[in-house]
Amino acid sequence: MNHIISRPLTALVAMTCFATSVHGDHDTPALADLYADSFKIGVALNPGEIRGEDPSAARLVSQHFNSYTAENDMKWERIEPTEGNFDWAVADDFVALSERNNAFMVGHTLLWHSQTPDWVFEDSNGEPASREVVLARLKHHIDTVVGRYKGRVHSWDVVNEAFNDDGTWRDSPWLRTIGPDYIARAFEYAHAADPEAELYYNDYNLFKAPKRDAVVKL
Fold first, then answer.
1. Binning pLDDT at 50, 70 and 90, where does residue 27 land?
2. Strand partners, 169
């Protein structure tokens, strides 16, 4: 699998619009075509961009990018805001757009310390839930989300940002409730839900040696 470069659409709008203003749309080579033999060109999309509300943005997306990620709308707080109640509206539109444009899809993200509702880690009294309860909720969430798009979404950011820059574990509710094996459990659940999907660990600042070494060790 070649590497994927993924950035918010706005980060490349100015560059691309400058090129089109000089050469015109028909004379501007598609970034995805220029690098087709090397890597994919990715873009993170918000709901307006997913739904084509801005025609100029829609043209940029379809012309220059061949790997799509939903910025926020497949994260836990958006897709399962309350237990067992899933909102598929934007995620379904994202998958439909990606399929229309024949783009590689990255599902982002199944497990993160941020943008996860508090209820995931609480019992009925608002106290910390047990390891077993949180693992069961994690499995149900992954089974449901990955299972819905099995064979359609090509890859998943299974776990997002589990380490600090100094290589220590991030002190997250996942770590406190489950322990370090929460990462392994998440990957096992995701693989079982769609054995053909590519599964990723995602993080930033991996140019910093302590963090990079921790992730490589993981």
1. confident
2. 163
